[in-house]
Predict the 3D structure of the following.
Amino acid sequence: MAAIFADPRLKATSNNGHGVCIEEIEGLIRVYKNGQVERPPAIPIVPCNVTLNGQVTARDVFINKYINLWARVYVPSCPAGNLPVLVYFHGGGFCVGSAAWSCYHEFLASLAYKAGCVIMSINYRLAPENRLPAAYEDGLNSLRWLKQQVLSGSSEHKWWMNQCNFSSLFLAGDSAGANIAYNVATRVAIDNAVIKPLCVKGIILIQPFFGGESRTVSEKHSIQPANSALTVSASDAYWRLSLPVGTNRDHPWCNPLANATAGLQELRLPSVMVCVSELDILKDRNLEFSKALAGGGKKVETVVYKGVGHAFQILHNSQYSQIRIQEMMSHLKAFMNR
């Protein structure tokens, strides 16, 4: 799905009057020399009320209309109240994806119902129009917005906030979204006052999207099927498009272990769950990251899902996807309810 288009003829081809295409991840994004960005409709965009089968209520809420920062909120239809709150960031290499993508809508609606939690799925700004740290800023500002609604007793949002236990707040995401969740969590750890009285109880990182200039064994030797959600070439392209101009993949936002892990000991992070896919090119990097967190004194739970690759839980691109999705949801529910 996300194999990079490496045809050298692209360098000399114009398209739609935008000029030369300088970067393309096939079927997902094209970037032109004049700055124009195209994102083909690879995955359907769906409204919040699609196919929820009465199990979950979902609505879209604006956080900042000026930058189109919004969230899709999911609440179990028969809530017991006092539910954990999951602030979720979608994947897509920081460059593609939406809280309204059908695959995320289906996954998160099912997770809200099966795990018994309220989910706030953030639709953050994308690169390359808004390079990092824009997505991190959107994540932190989403928490600030949530804090304001809680403190003001917002009547507009009582329909879902009355069901929430805000002392049991979790930051989560998959792929690039997991990277965002981690970087937002580190900012909160440095200055927790920005979100009080909210309390981040845990961090859930599903196949977190990290990188580095040196290749890991799984990046070099993992054989990816044709429908793989992430290849090494696509990963490199995402980083070229999302990191600050002039930096490389050893930038700490890409490679948090590049310089030293000593800083991890200083961070006061809550419990962390890292979900790793056995066939993912990121497997070794994810396991190394988990080990570094544990070495820094953090409470870490690492789960490896056998026989599946990157983003299996939303793309259903393996014969084992359904079994592993149910396992993942069970693990996430247990983690949130400890």
